[in-house]
Target: inositol-phosphate phosphatase
Amino acid sequence: MNWGALDRYAKSLIKEAAQHIKHSFFTEIEISAKSSANDLVTNIDHEIEQFFIKRIRRDFPEHRIMGEEGFGDDIQSLDGFIWFLDPIDGTMNFVHQKRNFAISLGIYIDGIGMLGYVYDVMADDLYSAMKDEGAFLNDIRLPSLEDTTIEQAIIGVNASWVAPNRYVETAPMIDLVTKCRGTRSYGSAALELTHVAAGRVDAYMSMRLSPWDVAGGIIIANEVGAISSTLTGVRPGLLQQETFVVANKSIHTQLLEEFIVLKK
Ligand code: 2AM
Ligand code: CA
Ligand code: CA
Ligand code: CA
Model:
């Protein structure tokens, strides 16, 4: 495989898809609910996923695609080439804010992340990474992360972590949000991963994410030395919904051991 050529191909596909998304603001967008009233999807999510899939199938017929909206392949194993695609990550932001959403794409071979992309469409910020070649923001290299401490960290969490929930004990989470320097919640898992990779946020966690939410961002975060895992500390499996945390490596273990206490 010519990885440089595949990288250029993926970037041009993402930029073309982003133009379609921007043009959609001049049309009537159809919004519907998926699993719950707050879980939104639009005709644009569907159209963008179909745009990618049509191109990838034409140009790489032997590759498989896992996309959020279900137009891709039924993926039960990580063998061979797999493209993990979230056509719009942060659909609620797309609908309500017309910003703060991203296209997320990760290209894996036999479960190993090779090329990762998160494109903040309205900011025109393309985060990308190639395994062992570093991570970039618009072709400017992102430096490796420097060590930090909980007291100096900004933690990416949403309010559900300190409200009663079925995944984690709230008392240690309240302790965490009290001890850390600040908290943030951006509403797009892919963008939150890039904030960690760029050192703007020091950790991000979620109780339930799917492979397409994180596959691209994990590769980017990995290249600057951040650690991604489930809340039990194992590598994300990328075949089903899981808990997720990405953090500066100097606080990852402490977060899991002291503050994220899983309910039995
Ligand atoms: P989405 O916008 O592509 O659905 C919102 O905090 C983040 O969680 C987004 O990255 C969102 O992705 C993701 N997410 C995963 N499952 C979700 C669900 N059932 N409802 C809403 N957001 C979900
Ligand atoms: Ca969704
Ligand atoms: Ca998503
Ligand atoms: Ca999505």
